[in-house]
Amino acid sequence: MKTFLKKYFWCLGIVFIVAGLISSLLSPTQSIISIILLILGIILIIGWLIYLSNRANFWQRRSTQTGTNALISTLSVIVIISLLNFLSFRYVFSLDLTETKVFTLSPQTTEIVKNLTQPLKVWLFEDQGYKKDTSLLEEYTKYNDNFQFELVDINKNIAVTQKFKVKNVGDIFIEYNDKRQKIITLNPEMQLTEITLTNAISKILQDQSYLIYFIQGHGEPALTVSDGGMSQAKGTLEGLGYTVNSLVLASENKIPDDCDVLILAGTKRKLLDSEIKLIQEYVNKGGSLFLLVEPEIKTGLEPIFKEWGIELNLNHIIIDPSTEQIVTPIVSFYGDHPITENFNNDISIYDFATPIGTTSVEGIDAIALVTTNEETWAENLETLTENTAVSFDPNTDIPGPLDLGVVLTRLQSETEIIKNNDKKSTEEKPNNDNKTTEEKPNNDNKTTEEKLNNDNKTTEEKLNNDNKTTEEKLNNDSKSTEEKLNNDSKSTEEKLNNDSKSTEEKPNNENESIEEKPKETSPKTEDKTEENTSETTPETQENKPEKMIESRLIIFGDSTFATDGWFENQLNGDVFLNSVKWLINDQENPLSIRPKEFQNRRLNLTPFESTMITLLALVLFPLLSVILAMFTWWKRQ
Amino acid sequence: MVVLNNIIAIFRKELQGYFTSPLPYIITTVFWLMSGFFFWVLLLSPFGMIQDINAQEQMGSPLPPIDIAYEFLRGFFDVMGSLVLFILPILSMGLYSEEKKQGTLELLATSPLTNWSVAVGKLLGVLTFFITMIAPFLLYEAIAFNTAEPPISFPVPLLAHLALILLAASILSLGMFISSLTDSSIVSAILTFFVVLFLWIIDILSNTVSGTFGEILSHISLLNNYNTLVKGVFDTSSIIVFFSYIILGIFLTAQSVETFRSQRN
Q1: Do A58 and A111 lie in a common domain?
Q2: Which domain holds residue B123?
Q3: A193, A613, A615, A623: which to substitute to probe chain B, counting the most B Cβ within 10 Å?
């Protein structure tokens, strides 16, 4: 034992050094313990060497020579084995023997990964001690060196974490060229699957980026984080890979050619005639327009409404007597349309909405997208005085069901459009005259609802000013607006939240954007910078004269539903997003990768078989072994 | 040919030693009792997989497709992978230390047999004994999987058994080397157990450390490669890792015996 200790004393030194190295690797900061361990290990080995050399002619002894020989050959064998392993690690051949090939990537995935020409990196942001499962990512890396992934400890690598604006532990981002997109946030219910990862890759590989313009300049909800803004809508759209810009028509004086969808949401003032003209031209060229109008506000878009057969009763608001707050209709009926095809009877919530009426116009196909139930009606605000209770009056009010959102498509040849344009210009005048008379009474009849909103606004604004620049602002803002919403319609709202929490949370989680732009200072400068960045997506239909041009228009009688706080409620976000997607005409067909499933197999053991196994495993075999042990023992005696 | 005969001779002698002494049987008894217990608990007991799935199906909850045979196999071999880590050091402890203690290693070392053929023969002997120890699993599995609906295919269970044998061979090989360092079986067993523990820590570290270092750790982690094979993926790099351990163990043993001989002279 003593000679053993003498001989292998150096092992102890190595153990200390290894322990020191590992602890220094594991702890985020240089800890004193690891340094002590390292020093201790080195001292032990040096001490051992000194002890050896002090012994008489140690280096001349034969055992030392054979010892060194053994050491050298051992080292060379270890090097050879390491090299072999390195090669086997690089050039691996693996065969998936499971019946359903659970651990093999689908041909679609391998195709995409093999064809990567530029580095694509997946970033996993994790906490210390998080049990990582990177087997799927490792599988991807086998097909192409351009596919890389890296695990980042949120607490250690703060620079990278901030670059990606990581919000949660378990966030997974994908980076290609300069594009960064969040895939999902890992949690026990949501694991990274081949389907999500491959679809995210194929999405980020698509060079084409659709451009969405929000018209600004007339009191529309801001795209930044602000009270009643649309930052959530913007963020989600960007998360889906779209580029979202704001557009001040009056100063730009043109709609960019690469505009895929033009959104006019919740304008508070009338648009200029020149602006209306630009919008009309844009739509006639085959553009897609998304209008979210508010009651009581004249937009000046009447020529377009007339052309498309849209009839607005802006002095009417939809009353839903079944809800706590009668001016927030809850809708569960949707039209038969791709936008709403998966909605079933799930609900979306609107606030202070006006009904959208349509008349049939030749060449225009109108489908009601969102329809209120039969109990609702549209209350004429002109007949409403402060003392009377809100009730249905067949003379002045419009009975339900009412259309709240309508989707319209027009298929026209170019000549027809020109003809229509001429007609329009003559009709514009009388429309304008009507407006002035209509506007007056509307302003008088503001309900208490708005007062309530204004009260909330002031407190919210304070809250927002406190933490303007930070990311948290988004969360705070949505919270406060949500609170407002909850106050407005407490009981029903809570019920509904519970009902469809899961459906509502999903899209938000998956598509959170990271490309949050810094807060714009003034609309003018912002427009300039954005124009430079957006130079893709030419309008294809433009140059073919005799081709039929399809224009798309969606109009909602409410804009609040898409603003922050409301957006994430129920299906509101999906109503908005699906509408935009449909307007873009984005042929988004995710790769049809079949989910990996095991063979469904059961073991149908009879009681006899089950007893037999139990008996064999727990009694017979151990007993046999005991008997044999006793037998051999007896024989030895 | 001579070499092969030598190996077979050593192998026979070693194997005979295992079957004619009581200690290996006692170890076997413990191992069979424990493995049998886990087999029963995981599959047949009231908390076993069959009962669990039955209960869930009766509750009417929709289940994703589950391959019970496969799930059980993975669960069982996962436990076995850990269990053998405790058993193997006891099997390998006497391989050389007994010879050293009884003074027969001088005979072996100075005999015309090469050191490595002795090591290979001894390793094969102890490995064969281990294979006998896990043989009853095949019988249990045969009975259980015979009732599978739809019928089971064999590559995955066979690969799992191969993985267990490779894991055992790697640890036995390292244990053999440690056994050649000392003339005390107990010291050899304890040291081997520490090495196993160290390998286990590597496996845990490989799951928490990221970067190249973590990648290397997960590559050399025996349990990690074992799990790859058990889940049904025949991976050449995993096989090569196991053989690296085996060859390294044999080589170090041969070196150790060589040094032992030169020191005696």
Answers
A1: no
A2: 2-264
A3: A613
